[in-house]
Amino acid sequence: MPEFDHFTGRCPKCGEALQIPSSLKQFSCMYCGARLTPEELVVEAAPQEAVQETVQTDGATGAAYYRENILRTVADYPGIERELTKNDFVPAFERYSQGTGEIFRQLDLAVAAGAMTLEEAAAEFLDQLEPRWNKNGRRNVSALDKDKFVIAIFMVPMVRKMALPISEAYCQILRDQWCSRYPKSPFNLGDYDTIVNGFRKKYLGLCFITTAVCREEGKPDDCAELTAFRGFRDGYLQSCPDGPALIAEYYKIAPCIVARINLSTDPAARYDRIRKEYLGPCYEDIQTGRLAQCKERYVRMVRALEQEYLS
User: Fold this and answer.
1) Rounded distance, CA 104 to CA 258, Å?
2) What pLDDT was estimated at residue 50?
3) Per-residue pLDDT tens digits for 49-104
4) Which residues, including other chains, have CB under 8 Å from residue 54's CB and lie 6 or more apart?
5) Is 153:145 a contact under the CB 8 Å cutoff?
6) Do 41 and 7 meet the contact criterion of CB atoms below 8 Å apart?
7) If we measure between CA atoms, which residue out of 165, 65, 190 comes closest to residue 121?
């Protein structure tokens, strides 16, 4: 350990920045309570100043490096789309950043030297992606959705978090070219802080999926359905012997389910199906006092969505 009074880093469980006395060998995160050692803290890498110094003389090398490695941003991370959970996202994001950040530092070098434009860089990425989805003249929509999820939840937030001169423009151009090629499968530009902070909002857990369905229908956050489900969660479900564990489990997996739905080609249709098959009957159960039946139905819904989107 360095010879300082304190050391700093981010909690690998919740992502919050911590400053810990250097004399401690073990400590608890003040935000989520995780028990940690100094070695487990996530330490952000120092800025890559050496790369920036070579901008004027090494642009061609940067462009070649980008072309040769850009597909790795999705191809090298199979299954990472399942790691958008409260406990898994921050360490997965750090692992992804360490493995792919250099690709965009090299692109920044190439663009500054005039060896590549951002339009060319975005088109190169999409050109390399398409063969992953198109087999025998048919497009695999599921494969496209998985790659889009990695781009929207990991790659774009990472590039924006790097705050390179190219970061914002590259992400915008990539999104615009994607939407032009695949107008039925758009995505929005996200950022790291918004994703991490989303895990801490009060509507997570049991009401997260319900919130997403209601928002898709244009209903406010205090609509009758959401108010009823929150009352059910904080009253009946919390008092059940297995209630707190169920709430904690939903809190962990629901954000990933909703993110996957939002990035699918037909989110409105999927939310409508969830409302008709599960949430509508659950709401009727609450209204008529069939709380045990509501619990069983909601558990069944989450299990089915977990199988569909996270397996």
Assistant:
1) 29
2) 42
3) 444 443 344 789 999 999 999 999 999 999 888 787 777 889 999 999 999 999 99
4) 109
5) no
6) yes
7) 65
Beta bridge partners of 15: none
The encoded tokens of residue 54 equal 């070579």
Rounded to 10°, the helix 141-150/118-133 angle is 140
Q: How far apart are CA 141 and CA 266, in angstroms?
A: 11
Return d(Cα 65, Cα 102) in angstroms, integer.
Answer: 9
Q: Which two structure tokens, joined as six digits, stand for 139?
A: 């497009």
CA distances from 254 to 84, 175, 194, 209 (A): 9, 25, 16, 7
Using CA atoms, how far apart are residues 28 and 10, in angstroms rounded to an integer?
12
Is residue 148 within 8 A of residue 185, CB to CB? The reply is yes
Nearest-angstrom CA–CA distance, 44 and 42: 6
Q: With b meaning 16 or more CB within 10 Å and e meaning fewer, what string describes 165-185?
A: ebbeebbebbbebbeeebeeb
Could you give the CA distance from residue 240 to residue 295 in angstroms, rounded to a whole number? 10
Euclidean distance between CA atoms 26 and 16, whole angstroms: 17
Q: What residues does 36 pair with on adjacent strands?
A: 27
**Nearest by Cα to 227 from 211, 213, 243, 249:** 211
Instruction: Dig out the tokens for 173 from the structure.
Output: 């151009």
Confidence bin at 190 (pLDDT 50/70/90): confident
Closest CA to 172 of 154, 182, 159: 159
Kindly give, in sequence order, each residue whose CB lies less than 8 Å from that of residue 203, ignoring residues fewer than 6 positions away: 211, 221, 226, 230
> Which tokens go with 114?
């005039």
User: pTM surpassing 0.70?
Assistant: no
Angstrom distance (rounded) from CA 38 to CA 270: 44
Supply the DSSP symbol for 46.
Answer: P
- Phi/psi for 141 (5° steps) reads -65, -35
